[in-house]
Write a structure and sequence with these properties.
Number of strands: 5
Helix content: 40-55%
Structural class: alpha+beta
Strand order of the largest sheet: 1-5-4-3-2
Oligomer: single chain
Largest sheet: 5 strands, antiparallel
Distance between the termini: 43 Å
Low-confidence stretches: 1-19
Mean pLDDT: 93
Shape: globular
DNA sequence: AACCAGGACACAA
DNA sequence: TTGTGTCATGGT
C-alpha cells in the first residue's frame, strides 16, 4: 500500500463512536501484525490492556486499539480525519515479510521468529523514547512502566479522553522535565537515574542536541550524538535509534539479548564483548534491529534461555 | 531472602 | 580492551 492510499483511505474513515464514547475511529488493514506482542514487548511503556484491546497515549492523543482479522481498529477521543500520525507510529505500511526475508537463515533466528509471529517495531517520539530508556537501566519493564506513568501524571499535560475513561496525560515536554528538580524526579521512583534525566533534558532544551534532526544523519553520527547525553551509553542510544529514529539496523544489546546471543550462537564458548559486538554488526543484516527484538522476546519467554 | 532487572560510569589492571 | 564496584528500587 502506498503512502497516498493510506492517507486517502484513512482520512475519510472518521465516524462517531456512540457505544464507547470515542469520538473517532478507523481501520488499518494490516497483515502479520501482532498488536499485543508489539505493544507489550518493552519498546514502549505506556500501553495497558483493556477489554479486548489496548489503551495508550500517542503524542497528545488518547488511543484505543483492537486487533481484527488482518486489521487494527483504532479509536481516539478527539475528532479529526487525518490518521497519518497513527499509521506512522504503528508502522502499518511496513511489509514484515520483506523484513523477515533479510534475516539470516539459521536455526536460532527461525526459532525466535516462530515464537512470536507478527512482532513489529513502532516509530516513537524521540524524546519520549529517550527519556523512557534513560529511566530503564537495570529496571524491569513493569517498573519502567510505573516510572513513566508517574512522570506523565505529575508533569504531563492532560489529554482529551472519551466519556467514562480516567484522566490521561501526554508524556511531559523536554522543557517541563528540564525545569523539574532532581528531587521531584527521584520522587517518581527512578533513583540514581534522576540526575541523568534532568541533565539530558537541559542539554536538549538548551539546543545542544536536536533530537528531531537525528533521523536525517548517519546512524553513526546520531549514535555518537546521543551518547553525549548523561546516562546514555551504547545500549540506550541504540534503543532510540531503533525505536524512534528509523534506523532498523541498530542493535541494542541488553542482558536478555546478550544471554540469547551467547546461548544460541556461542554455546560453551567464552565470547568477549568486542567479539559479540562484531558478530551482531555483521550477522543480522539491514534489519538487525528487528532480529534483535525477536531474540529479546524469545529470550524472555523461554525459560531455557533465562539461566 | 537472596538475586536480578531492556545500564552507565569511573577506575583498575 | 576487559573486569569490578556503585548507583536506587522493587519484582520474582
Amino acid at each position: 500500500m502506498t503512502a497516498s492510499s493510506i492517507k486517502s483511505s484513512f482520512s475519510n474513515a472518521a465516524t462517531s463512536g456512540e457505544a464507547t464514547g470515542a469520538a473517532c475511529r478507523t481501520v488499518f488493514p494490516v497483515r502479520d501484525y501482532n498488536l499485543a506482542a508489539t505493544l507489550a514487548s518493552g519498546q514502549t511503556f505506556r500501553w495497558r490492556p483493556c477489554e479486548g484491546g489496548w489503551e495508550g497515549i500517542v503524542g497528545s492523543r488518547w488511543v484505543r486499539l483492537r486487533s481484527g482479522a488482518d486489521s487494527i481498529l483504532a479509536e481516539t477521543a478527539a475528532p479529526g480525519g487525518d490518521w497519518r500520525w497513527l499509521a506512522e507510529y504503528l508502522q502499518v505500511e511496513q511489509d514484515l515479510a520483506q523484513v523477515l526475508a533479510t534475516f539470516p537463515e539459521d536455526e536460532p533466528m527461525r526459532a525466535a521468529v516462530a515464537a512470536c509471529r507478527g512482532l513489529r517495531l513502532l516509530r516513537q517520539d524521540p524524546w519520549e523514547c529517550l527519556a523512557s530508556f534513560i529511566c530503564s537501566s537495570t529496571k524491569q519493564i513493569v517498573q519502567i512502566q510505573q516510572i513513566v506513568a508517574l512522570l506523565c501524571e505529575r508533569f504531563g499535560e492532560p489529554v482529551r479522553i472519551p466519556r467514562g475513561s480516567g484522566a490521561a496525560f501526554a508524556f511531559p515536554s523536554v522543557e517541563r522535565i528540564a525545569a523539574a528538580g532532581e528531587a521531584e524526579l527521584r520522587a517518581c521512583k527512578m533513583g540514581f537515574r534522576a540526575p541523568n534525566l534532568c541533565a539530558a533534558a537541559r542539554k536538549i532544551a538548551d539546543g545542544e542536541i536536536d533530537l528531531r534532526r537525528l533521523a536525517t544523519r548517519s546512524a553513526e553520527a546520531a549514535r555518537a550524538e546521543l551518547m553525549l547525553l548523561p546516562g546514555v551509553g551504547a545500549k540506550i542510544a541504540d534503543c532510540v535509534l531503533l525505536f524512534a529514529c528509523g534506523f532498523p539496523a541498530a542493535f541494542p544489546v541488553d542482558v536478555w539479548v546478550r544471554k540469547a546471543l551467547r546461548r544460541l550462537y556461542f554455546p560453551r564458548r567464552q565470547v568477549t564483548p568486542k567479539r559479540l559486538q562484531e558478530f551482531t554488526a555483521a550477522h543480522f543484516g539491514p534489519y538487525a534491529g528487528y532480529a534483535q527484538q525477536y531474540l529479546f522476546h524469545y529470550a524472555r519467554v523461554h525459560a531455557k534461555l533465562k539461566k
